[in-house]
Amino acid sequence: DPHTQAILALRGKILNVERARLDKALGNREVQAMIQAFGTGIGEDFDIEKARYHKIVLMADADVDGQHITTLLLTLLFRYMRGLIEAGFVYLAMPPLYRLKWSNSAHEYVFSDTERDALLKHGLDNGKRIPKDAGIQRYKGLGEMNAKELWETTMDHSTRTLRQVTIEDAAAADEIFSVLMGEDVESRRSFIQRNAKDVRFLDI
C-alpha cells in the first residue's frame, strides 16, 4: 500500500557489524541506505525523535539463509540504533515456509515442518484432500511468491503475521549477539552445543 508502506530493498551483502569497526559499517552501502531511510542517525548521533517510521518490518526468507540475514540486521540495530528496538518500532515479518493447496478447500500457509505435518494430518483426518503432485509448495524465498501471495502473507495488515522485537534483558541480548556474531569461535561452539537440544527447526 503506497499510502502507508515503503519498501527498502537490500540487494547487497549485509555487513556483520559485530566484527566491523563503526567507520567500516558506515562505509557499507546497505547500512548507509538504512541509516538514511530510518532518519535517526547512528551511534552517538542517534536521535529517536527523528525517526521517520514507527514500524520497521524486517522481511527475509523463511529458511535458514533468511534467518541469518535477519540476525545481521538485528545486530546492526542492536549495536547502533538500539533505541528503535527499545521504542517498539522494530518487527519481524513472518513469511510462510509452506503452502498447502487443498483440492476441496481454501489453501493454507504454515511456518514450519511441524506445523505442516500437523495441519496435513488434521485436514486429511477431517475429509480434506490434497493434490498428489502440487498440493504442498515449499517457498525457498520471498521471490518465489507472486504479488498476490506476497501481499496476502507478508504485506496485508489484515492477514500478515508480525513479531515485535523487544529487549527484555539488554545484558543477555548483548551476550547472545556477541557470542553468535563475534569472532570467538569457541564461545560460539559452546553456545551451540548447550542449546542444540532445544533446536526445533533445522534446514540442511
TrEMBL record:
GO process terms (BP): DNA topological change
- SMART domains referenced in this protein's UniProt entry, alphabetically: TOP2c
Which Gene3D superfamilies does this chain map to? 3.40.50.670
For this chain, the family text in UniProt reads: Belongs to the type II topoisomerase GyrB family.
Any idea of its EC number?
5.6.2.2
Q: Which UniProt keywords apply?
A: ATP-binding, DNA-binding, Isomerase, Magnesium, Metal-binding, Nucleotide-binding, Topoisomerase
Catalytically driven reaction(s) = ATP-dependent breakage, passage and rejoining of double-stranded DNA
* Native source species: Sphingomonas glacialis
Q: Give the protein's recorded name.
A: DNA topoisomerase (ATP-hydrolyzing)
